[in-house]
């Protein structure tokens, strides 16, 4: 898949994308061997600040021998999907600095110097900082307050501070989202939590709207005037 946007140097936004990587996250590695280019799957182990990345050596029982492609000083391209944040394929190039076989089969690499990204979503998404409150769809009890980080005609992503909500809500929870429009009026629309993720500071909920796209589009235009 073509990479549509390339950045030289790491911005704070790029660093946030890298720090969104979690142990166990699936990775796609592109490596070069004497017989050609290979694409294999593995998983992310962790990172040491901005000094190095640690990646699990791919299963050679599944992908075949890779020792002629993954070795110290050889380069490789790493790709992963940042679906819960911005709906992007993120790619970067690193150099292998060390390959361990004990206590586990791990690859240590340099820290990337630049990122490339390709948007996955075809629909328009607006980046926002609109305050919102979530209520139970049936009980109408207030569940939490948060911020809408991005908004489209079919759904949104809401971030809620872990300081105000200790336990993350489960997917398939039906909610009502209350927001205040440009005129100071409170509006509510219904939705279903489709995915729930967390980092050190916040819980993030991907919510699919129950209203028609036309109704949400009208609301979106009113909210973006804020």
TrEMBL record:
InterPro entries: PilZ_domain (IPR009875), Split_barrel_FMN-bd (IPR012349), T3SS_YcgR_PilZN (IPR009926). Keywords: Bacterial flagellum, c-di-GMP, Cell projection, Cilium, Flagellum, Nucleotide-binding. The keyword Nucleotide-binding applies. This is Flagellar brake protein. Residues 23-112 form the Type III secretion system flagellar brake protein YcgR PilZN domain. Residues 121-219 form the PilZ domain. It holds the Pfam family PilZ.
